[in-house]
TrEMBL record:
Its EC number is 2.7.1.49. GO terms for cellular component: cytosol. It comes from the Bacteria. This is hydroxymethylpyrimidine kinase. Signal peptide: none annotated. The keyword Transferase applies. Residues 12-241 form the Pyridoxamine kinase/Phosphomethylpyrimidine kinase domain. Pathway: Cofactor biosynthesis; thiamine diphosphate biosynthesis. It comes from Tabrizicola oligotrophica. CDD domains: HMPP_kinase (cd01169). GO terms for biological process: thiamine biosynthetic process; thiamine diphosphate biosynthetic process. GO terms for molecular function: hydroxymethylpyrimidine kinase activity; phosphomethylpyrimidine kinase activity. It is an enzyme of class 2 (transferase).
Amino acid sequence: MTAPVLFIGGMDSSGGAGLLRDCATAAEFGVLARVAVTAITAQTDRAVTAVQPVAPGVVSAQILAAGQIAAVKIGMLCTAPVVQAVAACLPNAPCILDPVLRSSSGHDLIDAAGADALLHQLLPNVDLLTPNLPELALLARLSGCAARHEAARVEGLFRLGCRAVLVKGGHAAFGKVCEDRLYLPGAPPTPFRAPRLKAALRGTGCQLASAIAAQIALGRSLEAAIGGAKQAVQRRFRAAVDQESLPSI
Ligand code: PLP
């Protein structure tokens, strides 16, 4: 029996993103889930109306209670004390960090000190970071990297100790294909492509990172896990496109 995946992140009351999305993804891949809640949020698909961080000691206690873990996926961290609590008791397992900085509705989901702690205290423990293009730009700026070129920005993150970076291309303004690129130190990036589908869908970043973590737990290689995760997100996009094209009664 595969050990569970530990999801460390926020509760999104709307269920679109966050830990509910993570757990749904684990179930899709037939993997057990443990959670450590870092923040409680009240949200609709259009706005974040309240955020309450969880006390750092309670976050650590949840992580320690999770027991033996096959992989860890981290999402919303909210504040620097929560980042520090997570960094101090991370289980010894492959760790995927989705750097949740802001909701698609435009609300900051981590404060400035938290983002700084994420870069300098958590990143050295991360096996795979999964920023989208705006997150990569923001993390580069916060880390003092003035480069505009994607590969140079990723290089800056490697210097902070991160071991692999998957840059998600969904926010690129053009093209019929959505291309994500996996960067490993000293190698050219590996592209992962999927048709670009237009649908109002939240929690795609959470789903992608969770699906990667679930498949790593199942023993798949990083490349196979990313390919399978992109297919899972694509299935949800297709279902949303079909739903949106139904005539309203
Ligand atoms: N709320 C929580 C708890 C999240 O973890 C995330 C993203 O990871 C969001 C909100 C933002 O999701 P979206 O960008 O789909 O609005």
